[in-house]
Amino acid sequence: xxxxxxxxxxxxxxxxxxxxxxxxxxxxxxxxxxxxxxxxxxxxxxxxxxxxxxxxxxxxxxxxxxxxxxxxxxxxxxxxxxxxxxxxx
Length: 89
Known about the structure:
Layout: H1 7-23, H2 28-45, H3 51-62, H4 65-80, H5 82-85
């Protein structure tokens, strides 16, 4: 089963990677830039596996570069809050 199959698993996976990057000394701006690049890759290369991912893809596709960066930043912020990681599908 892929972490992309279940949105809760995806958030937990992303949260773990964000925490590892922070512990390795990655700056916040760099982390957000990486999240933006990953978001672009996922939007272009990966079919959404659930309703939440479909919504994120639609939001990504509707936004310009600045809005996509904001969405990526919000996803990073979302998974840094342990209360949010364990909620949802």
